[in-house]
């Protein structure tokens, strides 16, 4: 991707700060309900880190994951927990990274959501490819950004 207008804009400034997290032992049915109630398409999966007594992001699950990894495989959403189907390890990006770097990482990893972290590894926000491309001033620049 050519260095352009995206190179100077930070991913943290355009990432969603209101995101949903659930424990890795949460049932898929509960996660689906949370997604519906919060009108979101993804959930960050967390685990208790006993050493630091904090919760750490360990994976991500999307509505598509639920469809492909639970419903299509005839698994019960009332018996399957998030840790069984989450995408892990979690691909993240530093808060000070550019939008261009975020889009490039998403393209290379074939993902559409990217958790944004600080130096300590704390989860600050979640960037979506859709929201990052939306800030492109022209359709051509948006298409160039996602490689169309």
UniProtKB/TrEMBL annotation:
Keyword RNA-binding tagged: no
SUPFAM superfamilies referenced in this protein's UniProt entry, alphabetically: CBS-domain pair (SSF54631)
Swiss-Prot/TrEMBL keywords: CBS domain
Matching InterPro entries: CBS_dom, CBS_dom_sf, Diverse_CBS-Domain
Pfam families on file: CBS (PF00571)
Superkingdom assignment: Archaea
Domain CBS: start-end pairs: 15-76, 86-142
Keyword Acyltransferase included in the entry's annotation: no
Cited Gene3D superfamilies: CBS-domain
Name of the protein in its database record: CBS domain-containing protein
